[in-house]
């Protein structure tokens, strides 16, 4: 044990210093990755950036946590102490005794005599907040125009294309109970395809027309039982893609919000507060499914400037 064996004590101290040093290096690595590996516009660049930032943050916290645990277990004594319960406010004598216990604990940690250990701990704890502050400051001037979610890449006449194969869809090929993941025609050639796709993704489902419950103002938004809804959950924006054919329910895997596709994608369970926005669709002269317009309401989670 470190509290009885001087050699073991010194070895444990070095191990704690190494753990704090790992945290320091991981925080520095996080900061380097933040500036050197911006997310970019491609999935690969986002993957590299998120992986580097995640590893840096994880190792930084892990180093501090393991160092604190190892310090307490290996460098401080393991003598059991107990005291009787008293009234909520201790007497002045007990309060003075508590202060003495705290002083004893500080002395037991020997932080005042371990200069290298003290420096490693202070460095790790001082640097780690930068992993939180720097991204916040860096994003302070970012694009916060929530109005951008009021419009997507969908336009009147744009074909519904399968995702990811990017093939147009004929209404005759959509059987009852089938599900298609859909993107707008031409989105891959847009200026920011990744951003546009994140807003425009749609789930296409065909039901028996007799099962559909359509509001009067939306009776022309479907085609022969085929309906299209935004895949972006109205809770926090997770992809809604788990369809249960027998109940016509659509489930968000993140927080279990459940929507009834047969009844305007209304919420039947979970934390979401509004239905999934519906994409009005029809067919062109060749029988291909096309959009009648963009969504008529903002997609995604509710936010402070969203129009009702």
Automatic annotation (TrEMBL):
It is a multi-pass membrane protein. It is found in: Cell membrane. It comes from the Bacteria. Its cofactor is [2Fe-2S] cluster. PROSITE patterns: RIESKE. The chain crosses the membrane at residues 16-37, 49-72, 119-138. The keyword Membrane applies. Residues 199-290 form the Rieske domain. Its main location: membrane. Gene3D superfamilies: Rieske [2Fe-2S] iron-sulphur domain. SUPFAM superfamilies: ISP domain. Keywords: 2Fe-2S, Cell membrane, Disulfide bond, Electron transport, Iron, Iron-sulfur, Membrane, Metal-binding, Oxidoreductase, Respiratory chain, Transmembrane, Transmembrane helix, Transport. Belongs to the Rieske iron-sulfur protein family. Iron-sulfur subunit of the cytochrome bc1 complex, an essential component of the respiratory electron transport chain required for ATP synthesis. The bc1 complex catalyzes the oxidation of menaquinol and the reduction of cytochrome c in the respiratory chain. The bc1 complex operates through a Q-cycle mechanism that couples electron transfer to generation of the proton gradient that drives ATP synthesis. This is Cytochrome bc1 complex Rieske iron-sulfur subunit. It comes from Cellulomonas fengjieae.
């Amino acid at each position: 044990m470190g509290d009885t064996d001087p050699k073991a004590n010194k070895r444990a101290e070095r191990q704690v210093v190494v753990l704090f040093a790992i945290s320091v290096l991981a925080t520095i690595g996080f900061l380097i990755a933040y500036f050197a590996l911006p997310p970019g516009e491609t999935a690969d660049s986002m993957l590299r950036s998120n992986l580097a930032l995640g590893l840096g943050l994880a190792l930084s916290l892990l180093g501090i946590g393991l160092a604190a645990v190892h310090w307490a277990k290996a460098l401080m004594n393991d003598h059991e102490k107990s005291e009787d319960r008293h009234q909520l406010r201790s007497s002045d004598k007990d309060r003075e005794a508590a202060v003495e216990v705290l002083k004893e604990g500080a002395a037991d940690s020997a932080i005042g005599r371990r200069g290298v250990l003290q420096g490693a701990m202070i460095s790790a704890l001082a640097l780690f907040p930068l992993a939180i502050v720097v991204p916040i400051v860096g994003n302070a001037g970012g694009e916060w125009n929530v109005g951008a979610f009021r419009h997507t890449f969908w336009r009147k006449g744009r074909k519904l294309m399968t995702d990811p194969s990017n093939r147009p869809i004929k209404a005759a090929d959509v059987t009852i109970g089938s599900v298609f993941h859909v993107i707008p025609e031409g989105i891959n050639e847009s200026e920011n395809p990744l951003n546009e796709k994140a807003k425009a993704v749609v789930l296409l489902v065909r039901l028996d027309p007799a099962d559909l419950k359509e509001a009067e103002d939306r009776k022309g938004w479907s085609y022969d039982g085929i309906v299209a809804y935004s895949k972006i959950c109205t809770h926090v924006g997770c992809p809604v893609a788990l369809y249960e054919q027998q109940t016509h329910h659509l489930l968000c895997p993140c927080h279990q919000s459940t929507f009834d596709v047969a009844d305007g994608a209304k919420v039947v369970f979970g934390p979401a507060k509004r239905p999934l926005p519906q994409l009005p669709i029809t067919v062109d002269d060749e029988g291909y499914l096309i959009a009648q317009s963009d969504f008529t309401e903002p997609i995604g989670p509710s936010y402070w400037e969203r129009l009702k």
